[in-house]
Amino acid sequence: MRYKKRFREKRRIPLLKKKWFWRAILLLILFSGIFYLVFISSAFEIKEIKIAGIESCSEAQIKEAIRSEIEVSKNIFLIDIEKAVSNAKSSVPKISGLKVKRVLFNTILIQTEERKPIFVFQGFYIDKEGVVFEKASSALTEIRADFKTAPVLGSEAISRNDISRAVEIKDEFDRLKIELSAIFFLDQRIEVIPKGSWRVYFKREGDIKNDLKRIRILLEEKYSPKERENIEYIDLRFEKIYISLKNPAEE
Predict the structure, then answer these.
(1) Calpha distance 59→64 (Å, rounded)
(2) What integer is the mean pLDDT of 124-133?
(3) Any domain includes 16
(4) Range of the domain at 244
(5) Where do transmembrane segments lie in this chain (predicted)?
(6) Domains in the chain: how many in total?
(7) DSSP letter at 40?
(8) DSSP-based helix, strand, coil % in the chain, nearest 5
(9) What is the mean pLDDT of residues 56-63?
(10) Number of CB atoms found within 10 A of residue 75's CB
């Protein structure tokens, strides 16, 4: 006797009764809610800008530069920090360093660092990096170097090599308690002019550290502050140091 196998059709579970479907719906709702809360609602909208580290810069200018970027995206998570920093530095050349931090939910904290004037170049202050940043209002050591165009605020006016040498020269003369009027970078030499009427010549591309050591020893051991008034110039461009006196009889 033959038996026919009975095939029972498997009962299909409706989609709405499947657990994974409702889990997926719940996850979708959860992520949609988080997305709305973080990126669309006003919960994380920037409402306050705080600035720290200001000494003489314009707080209003810095805030205005940052706000121009906030207008693009008011959300604290979507603001382009790098662009905001770039805008602020362009608007306020006196700023040398700037960090923007997100604080809590609605606040941006801006930490600023200002440039310090060290020389005057063509009527403008420049810092230790050779960057022009502000119209000079007081007398500092003047620096002159080859520069074919007018100084532009926020840009380098002096090459890194020249400004580095100028800073080394100034630091050494400060240690000797000799105030400088000017430092000139000429084609073949560096001409340093202390307060008074004497000069010091260095090689344009020489070993400045060694030459500064040579003049320090010379001035400390041979010429007192009073005796330096008789010096016309000191030339360190050669292996031998050449000294010209206004009145050789006083030597």
Answers:
(1) 9
(2) 92
(3) no
(4) 119-250
(5) 20-39
(6) 2
(7) I
(8) 35, 25, 40
(9) 81
(10) 16
